[in-house]
Q: What sequence folds into this?
């Protein structure tokens, strides 16, 4: 695996990626509220009530009345703000920190926010459709962030990214190779471990949604794939 740390691509159209910062702050705040002020039982109840449970979403199962926190359709969106552990939270927020600023810059604040929400929705739907009988709640921003990663790859494939290969080897590698390897890993895992505890199909659904929407959401002055941005 490759953990991105820095790309060095300057912003072109805005001073700061305020939406990316707000999304990170929101996810961190929700996580802190769950872990610092709630018992383990309450955390489980929140994950069950606001996480996406495919069997509940499709009506094949029902949550106990005391666990119902939101209508099933709303969990397609609410699950994106929840994370089940510090490593889960940190990994997602790191990817959003490294890649989100330049994607937001290429789209604008409001369009990026809508893009993020739609990618999260695409990831949630993909997970539910591929695991329709699952009783496990899906939580995490991975689907939405996968869409951001897809957009970054389409915008800056030639940028060289600093990161850690295999989680500990410092390496500077072209975004095309780093992200393509990450996508391949998601696809392989989704095929060999479809019923695992990681929402691989949410990642892939977010990727596909992001790739489809990116040409529609970027500024007219932005180009796809061909521009050799420097980082």
A:
């Amino acid at each position: 695996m490759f953990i991105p740390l820095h790309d060095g691509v300057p912003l072109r159209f805005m001073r700061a990626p305020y939406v990316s910062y707000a999304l990170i702050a929101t996810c961190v705040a929700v996580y802190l509220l769950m872990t610092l002020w709630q018992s383990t039982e309450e955390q489980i109840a929140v994950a069950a009530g606001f996480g996406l449970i495919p069997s509940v979403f499709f009506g094949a199962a029902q949550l106990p009345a005391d666990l119902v926190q939101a209508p099933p359709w709303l969990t397609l969106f609410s699950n994106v703000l929840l994370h089940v552990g510090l490593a889960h939270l940190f990994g997602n927020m790191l990817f959003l920190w490294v890649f989100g600023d330049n994607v937001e810059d290429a789209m604008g604040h409001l369009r990026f926010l809508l893009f993020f929400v739609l990618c999260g929705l695409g990831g949630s739907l993909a997970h539910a459709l591929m695991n329709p009988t699952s009783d496990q709640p899906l939580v995490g921003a991975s689907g939405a962030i996968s869409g951001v990663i897809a957009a970054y790859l389409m915008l800056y494939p030639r940028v060289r990214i600093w990161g850690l290969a295999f989680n500990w080897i410092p390496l500077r590698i072209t975004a095309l190779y780093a992200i393509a390897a990450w996508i391949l890993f998601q696809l392989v895992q989704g095929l060999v471990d479809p019923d695992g505890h990681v929402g691989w199909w949410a990642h892939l659904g977010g990727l596909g949604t992001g790739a489809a929407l990116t040409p529609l959401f970027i500024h007219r002055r932005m180009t796809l794939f061909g521009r050799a941005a420097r980082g």
Remarks:
- Residues 2-217 form a domain with the Rhomboid-like fold fold (CATH 1.20.1540.10).
- The first strand starts at residue 2 and ends at 6.
- The chain has one domain: 2-217.
- Residues 86-107 form the longest helix (22 residues).
